[in-house]
Amino acid sequence: MVFYEPDRRDRELLPHDPFKAFIAPRPIGWVSTLGASGAVNLAPYSYFNAVCDTPPTVMFSSSGPKDSATFAREGGEFVWNMATWELREPMNLSSKELARGDSEFEFAGLETAPSRLVAPPRVAAAPVALECRVSQVVEVADGPNIVTFGQVVGVHVDESVIVDGRVDLTRIRPIARCGYRGDYTVVDSLFEMLRP
């Protein structure tokens, strides 16, 4: 068993930091926001997750004041769009750093769809989207990271993925990050274990 402190790992044994590979798979925070100037932003975040269900709340972490974190703070709203196997290429394209004001939706060939309760648009092709109002912003100590929490106030779900009253993730095939530079996985099978 190898032990190391995060800033003192054996770089011959582990030349690439495995932290992101340990916490895997991670859902992708494909976040759309609207800036005070009217600029729309769309970006995937590796550090994203649900944090509680009452009230339903999600979070994404930005390494510094990137457009998504800045716009979410300015407007107080964001939309999480589910990234799927079919949308993997446009999702990846939307990660490109463009000049502020340039549209990631346009660059990635994606259509927008209006939200119902928040101003930022959503990805029209995403089978699930969560409209969120910012509930808290936390700047993590000893680093440039900004964590944005959002309470889910509206849910969009494609009816074709609902089977017997449940959302069938194997029909949606969401993708998730698994670490390092570009490792992903796709949900295409499930198993069930009931609590004892």
From TrEMBL:
Q: Which PANTHER family match?
A: BLR2425 PROTEIN, FLAVIN REDUCTASE LIKE DOMAIN-CONTAINING PROTEIN
Protein name (record): Flavin reductase family protein
Q: What is the lineage of its organism?
A: Bacteria, Bacillati, Actinomycetota, Thermoleophilia, Solirubrobacterales
Quote the InterPro entries the UniProt record gives. Answer: Flavin_Rdtase-like_dom (IPR002563), Split_barrel_FMN-bd (IPR012349)
The protein's matches in SUPFAM superfamilies, at most eight in alphabetical order, are given as: FMN-binding split barrel (SSF50475)
Give every Flavin reductase like domain span.
Answer: 22-170
**Which ranges does the record mark as transmembrane?**
none
